[in-house]
Amino acid sequence: MSLLNRAPPREDAELNLIPLIDVMSVLVTFLLIYTADVEVVQNNKGVEIPQSTAQTQASPSVVVTITQEHILVQGEVVASVADAVAAETALVEPLKRVLERPMLMGDASSGVAKREVTVIADKALSFDLVRKVMATCTATTYGKISLAVLQK
Amino acid sequence: MSASRARSLVLGNSLTQGSFTNRVRKPTELMLVPMIDIFTVLVTFLLMTAVFSRITILQLDLPSADAGGAPSPPEFRLEVIVRDSGFELTNGSTLIAAVPKVAGEYDYKTLTDLALQLKRENPDVDDASVLMERQVKYDYLIQVMDAIRNAQVDGSIVELFASVAVGEAPMVDTPAGEQPVTEGVTP
After folding, report:
1. Which residue among A148, B6, B11, B19 has its CA within the 20 to 30 Å range from the CA of A107?
2. Do residues A152 and A53 make contact, with C-beta atoms less than 8 angstroms apart?
3. What CA–CA distances, in Å, run from B149 to B8, B53, B171?
4. Which residue has the higher pLDDT, A38 or B111?
5. Is B180 inside any structural domain?
6. Mutate which of B139, B143, B163, B182 to disrupt the A interface (most A C-beta within 10 Å)?
7. A21 interaction partners in chain B (CB closer than 8 Å)
8. For A26-79, what is each residue's pLDDT tens digit?
9. What's B130's domain CATH number?
């Protein structure tokens, strides 16, 4: 009896995939839109930059990163933090040499005031070091300095 | 007459309908599995590369070289001196207020309130300087800049001193009336 009552086995038991595709499409669209504006300034994993309420978007520029150990220009290590702090000079000399490279400065036609440096510094660093780096930037024909911060 | 005609119509209708549905009923399946594969890969990839923390910038107000000598020194310029012991507010020449640390933490709230009050007295002034002692952490510079740039009044954000210059604090032993050692970050 029960054998007779049992429903005949379905020919094709299909998964209902349409809702899954719907959800996926929404996710893909959302993520594509969200990541559409390419980050101009990339942060290294090791640098913990301070948080701020600043709204200004970063613009393409020369990036000087100060980690706990090194000073980097466009991702290239140019000096160590310990040396820079210990140096008696007002400027960071190795950094100065790198910043003065013609490749980095772009076309010479753009005025000093137009050239921009973005400083990404770890928030645990002392102001003295950051000031030295900023002074080096202004000393080498960069007219604008921006500090990279994390949007709150 | 009319009835038979109607019947034939109905019959004809049902006939055409039947053939139509028969044509549609044929199992036409979309190949969804490859599409799902691609979507899954896309979602994983995008999730991995998604940056959920946005980097913004704080532009510093540098004393530009091409401006020459300042044509007319403004009558008021807010200066916040950040020391280990707390903040000192000056108007460039005289001390306005001192904001000591509260329980070992800088008192940003009072600083913002004072800045707001000063902004009300000098609505045209946008410039401010943050002068830091050397050993003070860089993080505090950003927090102080935040504190004097914007203030929240009744739920709306009011802009206070938007263009902020950074410099080094004068030594403690110099009287408050003296000019600071450095102005801006130019050496």
Report:
1. A148
2. yes
3. 85, 22, 25
4. B111
5. no
6. B139
7. 32, 35-36, 39
8. 988 888 887 766 566 667 667 888 888 888 877 778 888 888 888 888 888 888
9. 3.30.420
Nearest residue to B147 (alpha-carbon basis) of B117, B92, B109: B109
Token pair, residue A91, equals: 């400027």
In a 3-state reduction of DSSP, which class is residue A42? coil
Residues present in chain B in total: 187
User: Global pTM?
Assistant: 0.69
Please tell me whether residue B56 adopts helix, strand or coil conformation: strand
Whether B59 maps to a domain, the answer reads: no
A26 Cβ under 8 Å from any chain B Cβ: no
CA separation for the pair B56, B111 (Å, rounded): 23
Residue B23 lies in a domain: yes
Contact A41 B35 (CB under 8 A): no
Residue numbers of the domain that contains B8 = 2-49
The count of structural domains within chain B is: 2
Give the integer Cα–Cα distance in Å for B13 and A148.
73
CA closest to B66 among chain A residues:
A113
